[in-house]
Amino acid sequence: MKKNPASSVSSDTLTIRPIGHIHTDFPEKFGIPRQSGLVPSLQAYITFEKEFQNPDCFRGIERFTHLWLIWGFSENQGRGWSPTVRPPRLGGNVHTGVFASRSPFRPNPLGLSSVRLEGISLKEGGCILYISGADLMDGTPIYDIKPYVPVSDHHPDALGSFSDTARSHRLTVHCDYELLSAVTPDKRQALLEVLALDPRPAYHDDPERIYGMDFGNYCVRFCVDGMELYVREIIQNKK
Q: Which residue, among 50, 68, 23, has the nearest Cα to 127 in the 3D structure?
């Protein structure tokens, strides 16, 4: 079997290029869940570069329910990194090591996300993977995809430090049905779940401040008072 050229240029240097890009409802970073899987109803799909559209690349992938995505923090290119970071879930004021966090500011700006495989489209024009639960911005480059293998990837006794509190930190979202009806039915649940995660920066705590978040074709304006989030306006963006 003929092999494709290897990506490595030396024994300890690796040159990588995107195999594809993900398409999500987040045109900007604000509002993106801080981890994958926190909003299972978020739908997305991945398209592939011509070189990787061969159906053989995806043979057998339908036998897995979940995938690992290796991707790039493309919005942070050239911004450098720091040995310590301040995780949002620690209030933005506590320092921890970069290798003890999932900060985007890393020596090699790569991210890792576990997502659910919802479907596959194999057509003459290429392959599309439909997934859910991603925590990525629209257009993020995907560098590799690997299957999630429960027998080896799942660790029931694992401890997650400060991340263990992420799922318990949820806001109560108040949104009038008249406002929510402006959003297409297939996106309503995901929007409410995203808002419940509290999209604000960790250091923001002003109940009078109105925030704006782009989600799909909509701009959502809201404020937060304590553990209550109030949607004030939902506007459909012009295409």
A: 50
Mark whether 33 and 148 lie in a shared domain. Answer: yes
Is residue 7 pLDDT above 80, yes or no?
no
Residues 56 and 142 in one domain: yes
Query: DSSP string covering 73-111, please?
Result: -GGGTT----SEE--GGGTT---EEGGGS--S--SS-EE
β-strands 172-174, 228-236: how paired? parallel
Are 147 and 31 in a shared domain?
yes
148 and 176 in a single domain? The answer is no
Give the rounded distance of the alpha carbon of 187 from its chain centre.
16
| Residues 217 and 107 occupy one common structural domain | no
Q: Which of 79, 88, 204, 69 is nearest to 135 (CA)?
A: 69
CB 8 within 8 A of CB 14: yes
Amino acid letter at 216? Answer: G
Listed residues 121, 153, 185: the one ending a domain: 153
Residue 149 CA to its chain's centroid (Å) = 20
Q: Is 135 helix (H, G, I), strand (E, B) or coil?
A: coil
CA angle 201–182–130, rounded 5-degree value:
70
Contact 195, 184 (CB under 8 A): no
What pLDDT sits at residue 8?
44
Q: Please tell me the pTM assigned to this model.
A: 0.88
